[in-house]
Amino acid sequence: MNRDRIYSLPRQRVGEFTFDDSVADVFPDMIARSVPGYASILSMIEQLAGRFIRPGTNIYDLGCSLGAATWLIRPQASMDCTLHAVDNSPAMIARLQQRLAELSPQEIASGCAVETHQADIRQVSLDRASFVVLNFTLQFIPSVDREPLLQKICESLIPGGALLLSEKISFEDDSQQALLNELHHDFKRAHGYSDLEIAQKRTSIENMLIPEPLDAHLSRLQRVGFEVVAPWFQCFNFASILAIKN
Ligand SMILES: C[S@@+](CC[C@H](N)C(=O)[O-])C[C@H]1O[C@@H](n2cnc3c(N)ncnc32)[C@H](O)[C@@H]1O
Ligand SMILES: O=C(O)C(=O)C[C@]1(C(=O)O)C=C[C@@H](O)C=C1
């Protein structure tokens, strides 16, 4: 795995974070060292896929990056399912397509077909879905577009279908916010990031990763039509929610 050193040297001006080639090259290392609980969430996505996926349905990994969730979900789905891996980053989708093209016939037979889409998740149409994943993607969508997107997802789900939503979250209380920021930065330091790397990354994502409080997520999911909305994981300022449509 390539080590993330993107922000290790001082920059005159820290530009806005983008999911380009340099990020795609180090992404597994970057996200594992930046998001506390990421590995646990992925492993639970695999388990949840086994529970919620139904034969003959579509599954969507929205903002799939290199397909970390896609690779775990695929073996859980029967061959008559289609797993749609969607991301608007050409660098991410190219690497996922490359890996899919290298599958052996035996590996192809070990799970359902994967269709990649280099597209904006606000624009793709969703249909007959049994399981939808938004693993740290909604946070990059402009705030006004979040509710329509979640509404579209809810409408596309079959009865009993589920959305797994993981997000960086914020806190209404200033002292709680300050504490959780510090704990997150301690986590990054413990995983080898310097203070400079932490500060420059923070500047670069400031205006494009917009976290919301957990309650805002829960009430919006209920508003768009999910009957069961269950927060099931939180580690510092990162949380994951399971939302089910009856
Ligand atoms: C933090 S990464 C997601 C990680 C991934 N889901 C995983 O589990 O490893 C966020 C991804 O969302 C993608 N993204 C951001 N906005 C998007 C949009 N409007 N449409 C499609 N993809 C988007 C980015 O390109 C990036 O690959
Ligand atoms: O919040 C941060 O400091 C992060 O680095 C988080 C985060 C994320 O949650 O997606 C931001 C960008 C990268 O994709 C990896 C991790």
UniProtKB/TrEMBL annotation:
<protein>
    <recommendedName>
        <fullName>Carboxy-S-adenosyl-L-methionine synthase</fullName>
        <ecNumber>2.1.3.-</ecNumber>
    </recommendedName>
</protein>
<dbReference type="GO" id="GO:1904047">
    <property type="term" value="F:S-adenosyl-L-methionine binding"/>
</dbReference>
<feature type="binding site">
    <location>
        <position position="135"/>
    </location>
    <ligand>
        <name>S-adenosyl-L-methionine</name>
    </ligand>
</feature>
<feature type="binding site">
    <location>
        <position position="202"/>
    </location>
    <ligand>
        <name>S-adenosyl-L-methionine</name>
    </ligand>
</feature>
<comment type="function">
    <text>Catalyzes the conversion of S-adenosyl-L-methionine (SAM) to carboxy-S-adenosyl-L-methionine (Cx-SAM).</text>
</comment>
<dbReference type="InterPro" id="IPR005271">
    <property type="entry name" value="CmoA"/>
</dbReference>
<dbReference type="GO" id="GO:0032259">
    <property type="term" value="P:methylation"/>
</dbReference>
<dbReference type="InterPro" id="IPR041698">
    <property type="entry name" value="Methyltransf_25"/>
</dbReference>
<dbReference type="GO" id="GO:0002098">
    <property type="term" value="P:tRNA wobble uridine modification"/>
</dbReference>
<dbReference type="GO" id="GO:0008168">
    <property type="term" value="F:methyltransferase activity"/>
</dbReference>
<dbReference type="InterPro" id="IPR029063">
    <property type="entry name" value="SAM-dependent_MTases_sf"/>
</dbReference>
<comment type="similarity">
    <text>Belongs to the class I-like SAM-binding methyltransferase superfamily. Cx-SAM synthase family.</text>
</comment>
<dbReference type="Pfam" id="PF13649">
    <property type="entry name" value="Methyltransf_25"/>
</dbReference>
<keyword id="KW-0949">S-adenosyl-L-methionine</keyword>
<feature type="binding site">
    <location>
        <begin position="120"/>
        <end position="121"/>
    </location>
    <ligand>
        <name>S-adenosyl-L-methionine</name>
    </ligand>
</feature>
<feature type="binding site">
    <location>
        <begin position="87"/>
        <end position="88"/>
    </location>
    <ligand>
        <name>S-adenosyl-L-methionine</name>
    </ligand>
</feature>
<dbReference type="GO" id="GO:0016743">
    <property type="term" value="F:carboxyl- or carbamoyltransferase activity"/>
</dbReference>
<keyword id="KW-0808">Transferase</keyword>
<feature type="domain" description="Methyltransferase">
    <location>
        <begin position="59"/>
        <end position="161"/>
    </location>
</feature>
<keyword id="KW-0489">Methyltransferase</keyword>
<feature type="binding site">
    <location>
        <begin position="63"/>
        <end position="65"/>
    </location>
    <ligand>
        <name>S-adenosyl-L-methionine</name>
    </ligand>
</feature>
<feature type="binding site">
    <location>
        <position position="38"/>
    </location>
    <ligand>
        <name>S-adenosyl-L-methionine</name>
    </ligand>
</feature>
